[in-house]
Amino acid sequence: MRGAVLLSGALVLAACSPQTVADSVARRTARTVVLPVVEQYMPGPAAQGVTTCIIDNATAQELNALARDVGVRAGTTTVQNVMTVATRPETIRCLQTSGLPLLPAV
């Protein structure tokens, strides 16, 4: 029994590759950058949902670019990056499926 528990723990750790961990960190960090941008256009609960759709539809490169802006006020480029992802058909579909509003055109 103890061996099975240790083996399953080892399998879980093996599944967490350095790339998976890096992607997860980039997603969480990018979320802290995207949410304040979205909150400029809508209140809390809707902003949370819209942020999720944006993060879920951003490319790895976009997530990394957004994550680099952590800790600073979002500038024009950051806002444009958020809006670019927000206007993609996949993101719009996510918003509509979730009953969330679209971001206004900037």
Describe this structure in words.
The protein starts with a helix and ends in a 9-residue tail after the last helix. It is globular and about 30 Å long. It has 106 residues and is an all-alpha fold. 74% of the residues lie in helices and 0% in strands. It is built from 6 helices and no strands. The model is unreliable at 1-13 (pLDDT under 50). This is Succinate dehydrogenase. Keywords: Signal. Residues 1-22 form the signal peptide.
Index terms:
single chain, 106 residues, 6 helices, 74% helix, disordered N terminus
Strand percentage lies at under 5%
Order of helices and strands: HHHHHH
Q: Please, how many helices?
A: 6
Number of domains: 1
Radius of gyration: 17 Å
Low-confidence stretches: 1-13
The end-to-end span amounts to: 59 Å
Helix and strand topology:
Blueprint: H1 2-15, H2 18-39, H3 44-57, H4 60-67, H5 76-86, H6 89-97
Briefly say what this structure is:
By secondary structure, this protein is mostly helical. It has helices at residues 2-15, 18-39, 44-57, 60-67, 76-86, 89-97. It has one domain.
